[in-house]
Amino acid sequence: MPLSGVQKSKHPCSVCAKRKVKCDRLIPCTNCVKRGLEKDCLEKPAGGQSDAIDDFLPRILRFWQKYEYWVGDIALSKSANFDTTEKQIDLQEELKECEYWCNFLSREQSFALLDYSIERLGVLYFGCVSDISELYLILEMYWYRREHKNEKDVVLTVDAHYSDALVWSIFCLAVHYMPSKTLHTIFPILPQHELFKPLDHGYDFEDRFQRNLSRCFERCTTTLLLMTNFTANSDIRLIQIYLILSSTMYPHRRNNSSDSLLLQSFHTAKIKHVNDFKPLISDSAALRLTKVTCEKMWYRLCTCDYLQSSPNKPITFHTELSSLLQHAAYLEDLPTTDVYQSEDSFEVFYWKVLSLDRDLDQYLTKELKPPLKTLDAVQRQVEIFSRKLSSPEESTSLDSEFARFLISYLVDGVSWKLHKMFFIYYGISASLGKSIHFAKSLIALVIKNMKLQKELFNRHPIVIWSLARVALFYRFLEMFDSSAEVQDINLDVSDILHYLPKGFTPHLNELIYLLERLQMLKDMWEYTGDAELRKTFSHPVFRILQSDIDTVSQQYTERPSMISGSGPLRTQKVSSNLEKDTGNISDSYSSLIERFQEQCQFDIQVLASLENFV
């Protein structure tokens, strides 16, 4: 009996997929009919897919979770290399470099940077500085010390160095977020410095100028901080300086230094009882205000600790804040509780949303399948936060457009990750479409900032942190699902990456390199069309991806040798459940893997060398 109605395929036809155009999935499709390619459209399997791949896809996607953690998170954002054989650091040279930048910055320029940070960047640091008006006084005292440094009554104390480092961290923040053209008007004359000598007035001159100046200011700030001898002289300003720097690319550019500073900030927070902010009836007015500031600082410190978590930083303290899901279960038994009530501060709201990301990300490294009730609880909380954001009454925690953007962006990022996990672990087909919807929402927020001339919002590290996960996942997924919606989101992501601020360099360059590498692996997947080989992880593509994981993970299993000259020792790698699928493959496939790894290398040093990669 003939089929009635229009027949449609689950996947685009191979002709449209090869041409990278949208396919209406009719049999034959409209594009092929117009081009006279009906025969090719009907003979070739749609999308190049097979039932074997469809059955194997759940295992492939779970494998991706591990790859996303080790490569998309650790290697891309939280790895740093250093060579102990390099020339010894000259502390006098560091001090000389710091003094150069202190002399380069004029009084007028410094106040212009402070004005910009207070007018537009307050949400990034007002929570950890109780009295903003004091910053102008601190800057005045900074210039008094510099202008009278040769007088006998001016002595540079530890307190003075802390104050100097604090204002310079704010300068660093302003340089990172300020539009490059505006920054160049404040600094019209190029510094007589080796980093600025190669600069020419090309199309990206202002971006490169800003990137180099940001790094130099960052280096000056950390040098001033070292002059406080903060390991021996604990001060609350150490935490403030670190929190301000954490809103720039400092944690990504100087990963080891940032981790060390974070742990020292945690030590200082415990000494100064920053985490003890519970209000008491007996508290004075001054103490209550202090506790409010301490609460904001503690939540922000835990936020930084979570975002920097890695095998290279096994000491964590963000776990002192329990999962929000536990509180959600408790609130279900209290029907009179208004779960939509606004949070007291931006810092608390931000952490609550980020804690949901933590609840999801824990399954990247676990072999366990996340329980449905956990994913449902996360979804319920996300819906509550979304309702708060859309409430006509603006909450006290969202007192600026920047704050609202950061919360909205983070909520969409958690929603994307949630539906990605529904799709990966439970095969809910509708969840793929929902994940793409939230991926497009992330992109739309970035584009909206561009249209409204608020590009400074896009310079926050959370932007590239979320987009990197999204971009890598869909580029990987396109190997096995060449549907129009997957192709479309990949095109959208590729477009938006080219419009992100250059201040994300080299992090952005590393991401583009990994995306191009995945595209080459997709080509390899299509080239090696052995149906039986595609059913196992012996396929060259998976061998290469597993090799990438091993390359990164082995770096974190090294132990220093106590025997001179023997080099680092590595703990034996634990066998993966996937390895039972691997076996001997033909010599042609082995040579294919070798050629690919030679042409498109992958290790931490290669990623770190992409400073000027285009």
UniProtKB/TrEMBL annotation:
<dbReference type="Pfam" id="PF00172">
    <property type="entry name" value="Zn_clus"/>
</dbReference>
<dbReference type="GO" id="GO:0042802">
    <property type="term" value="F:identical protein binding"/>
</dbReference>
<dbReference type="GO" id="GO:0000776">
    <property type="term" value="C:kinetochore"/>
</dbReference>
<dbReference type="GO" id="GO:0000921">
    <property type="term" value="P:septin ring assembly"/>
</dbReference>
<dbReference type="InterPro" id="IPR036864">
    <property type="entry name" value="Zn2-C6_fun-type_DNA-bd_sf"/>
</dbReference>
<dbReference type="InterPro" id="IPR001138">
    <property type="entry name" value="Zn2Cys6_DnaBD"/>
</dbReference>
<dbReference type="Pfam" id="PF16846">
    <property type="entry name" value="Cep3"/>
</dbReference>
<dbReference type="GO" id="GO:0000981">
    <property type="term" value="F:DNA-binding transcription factor activity, RNA polymerase II-specific"/>
</dbReference>
<dbReference type="GO" id="GO:0019237">
    <property type="term" value="F:centromeric DNA binding"/>
</dbReference>
<dbReference type="InterPro" id="IPR050613">
    <property type="entry name" value="Sec_Metabolite_Reg"/>
</dbReference>
<dbReference type="GO" id="GO:0008301">
    <property type="term" value="F:DNA binding, bending"/>
</dbReference>
<dbReference type="InterPro" id="IPR031760">
    <property type="entry name" value="Cep3_C"/>
</dbReference>
<feature type="domain" description="Zn(2)-C6 fungal-type">
    <location>
        <begin position="12"/>
        <end position="41"/>
    </location>
</feature>
<dbReference type="GO" id="GO:0031518">
    <property type="term" value="C:CBF3 complex"/>
</dbReference>
<dbReference type="GO" id="GO:0051382">
    <property type="term" value="P:kinetochore assembly"/>
</dbReference>
<keyword id="KW-0539">Nucleus</keyword>
<dbReference type="GO" id="GO:0008270">
    <property type="term" value="F:zinc ion binding"/>
</dbReference>
<protein>
    <recommendedName>
        <fullName>Zn(2)-C6 fungal-type domain-containing protein</fullName>
    </recommendedName>
</protein>
<dbReference type="GO" id="GO:0007094">
    <property type="term" value="P:mitotic spindle assembly checkpoint signaling"/>
</dbReference>
